[in-house]
Design a protein that fits this description.
Alpha-Beta Plaits, 4 strands, alpha+beta, 4-stranded antiparallel beta sheet
C-alpha cells in the first residue's frame, strides 16, 4: 500500500458547489473501504486535497478520476505519490 495525493485545482466555483455533495458521498464510500487517508478543502478556496491509499499509481488514478469533481470538470486533477514520513 502507498499514499497518493490528489490535488484538485478549482476550475469552476459555481459548478463546484453543485457537484460537492456527490464528491463528499463518493469519498465517504471510499473512506469506509479504507481507501482515503485524508481529505479536505484548501483554506484559500482554490481547491482541495485527497490522499488515497492504493496498491499502485494506476489504482489511485482510477479512484481519483472517478471523483465527481474530476468527471464533471469542476476541478482539475493533479496526482502524485506521497511519502508519509
Amino acid at each position: 500500500m502507498a499514499y497518493y495525493a490528489a490535488i484538485l485545482h478549482m476550475l469552476d466555483a459555481e459548478k463546484n458547489r453543485d457537484v460537492r455533495p456527490r464528491h463528499i458521498e463518493y469519498l465517504d464510500e471510499l473512506d469506509i473501504k479504507g481507501k482515503v487517508f485524508a481529505r479536505g478543502p484548501f483554506a484559500d478556496g482554490t481547491g482541495g486535497l485527497v490522499v488515497y491509499i492504493a496498491d499502485s499509481m494506476e489504482e489511485a488514478l482510477t479512484l481519483a478520476e472517478r471523483d465527481p469533481h474530476v468527471v464533471e470538470k469542476s476541478r482539475r486533477l493533479e496526482l502524485k505519490e506521497w511519502s508519509l514520513l
